[in-house]
Amino acid sequence: MTTVGILTGGGDCPGLNAVIRAVVRTGAKHGFDAIGIRDGWLGLVAGNVEPLTDYSVTGILPKGGTILGTSRTNPFKNEADLQRLRDNIRKFGLDAIVAIGGEDTLGVANKLSKMGIPVVGVPKTIDNDVGGTDYTFGFDTAVSIVTEAIDRLHTTAESHHRIMVVEVMGRHAGWIATVAGIAGGADEILIPEIPFDLDEVTHHLRVRYERGKKFSIVVVAEGAQPKGMAEAIAQSARKDEFGHVTLGGVGNYLRDELEKRLDMEVRVTVLGHIQRGGSPTAHDRVLATRFGVAAADLIRDQDFGKMVALRGNDIVAVPLEEAVANLKTVDMDLYKIASIFYGG
């Protein structure tokens, strides 16, 4: 009997439970036993696991978050932790591990794979920045939430003749800002891929005002930064185990600068973790389910060291090494579509 461990790492994301459900149920058809690993890689270090059965995953498809819990633990930060992880793989008789996560979680999976541990990856991030796949589940849900927020902010911005700055997630890639900004009719979209020029942003908004449009919507990714600034704006200098600081504050920075330059009232809405929460969209439920089924099939075929991915409309397997080699940043052709409407 093959025993498969399943874990979710990094930030929570709508659709994680759909993957877990699909791996457990498809695995059962392949004759696998499933073990849930609590709180990402931390659970494998601490030996915190539980059996996963058909009953365990009943009713979890529409539920946000992850029933297994998550963390940003990096077992490679400590040799003792890495040894405990390897000992627990043997202790619990794990023949394979399904690691569901983004760049950091899959980076650990890739290193473990190179050490000979049978691992299959499933890409997860609302930021849509994992390489090797066209889309990650969770992204569509986040975009839908942000788009609805922009729609709601439009009415109050227009009523009060305000500039509304909407700060959204996106550390290194501005996919959410770009796609939701286009869908919501934003008047300026600022992303990490392109340092923004405050003079240029101000000019666009002033032109719009002079044309009789007394309000504007500015969407900014948390990792966006003005030209000349060395690093993105952070809430603190404290870093997690993967070296990331907690971003946030670029929206307030923009408010202060735009009020000085335009003599207009500017309000900020930071959507934060609202983007991660709640029930996944139909698109994300289906994509996550397809990923989970494909991951179980890879284990059946003993095709390890791979990540399932969406290419066009097909689910394929790509090497984990390829998936974590580079972040997938915003398609500049898509971003240029947004810029057509600046100053309009």
* Approximate helicity band: 25-40%
Low-confidence stretches: none
CATH class of the largest domain: Alpha Beta
Percent in strands? 15-25%
Number of helices: 11
Give the termini separation.
63 Å
- Which sheet architecture does the biggest sheet show? 7 strands, mixed
The mean pLDDT is 92
> How do the strands of the widest beta sheet line up side by side?
3-2-1-4-5-12-13
Number of domains: 2
Mass-distribution shape = elongated
Task: Give the SSE order as H and E letters.
Answer: EHEHEHEHEHEHEHEEEHEHEEHH
Protein name: Pyrophosphate--fructose 6-phosphate 1-phosphotransferase
InterPro entries: ATP_PFK_prok-type (IPR012003), Phosphofructokinase_CS (IPR015912), Phosphofructokinase_dom (IPR000023), Phosphofructokinase_III (IPR012829)
Active site: 127
Keywords: Cytoplasm, Glycolysis, Kinase, Magnesium, Metal-binding, Transferase
Outline the structure in words.
Residues 4-299 form the Phosphofructokinase domain. The chain is α/β, with parallel strands linked by helices and 344 residues long. The chain folds into two domains: 2-137 and 280-323, Rossmann fold; 139-276, 3-Layer(aba) Sandwich (Rossmann fold). Helix content is 39%, strand content 20%. The strands form three sheets. It has a seven-stranded mixed β-sheet with strand order 3-2-1-4-5-12-13, with helices on both faces.
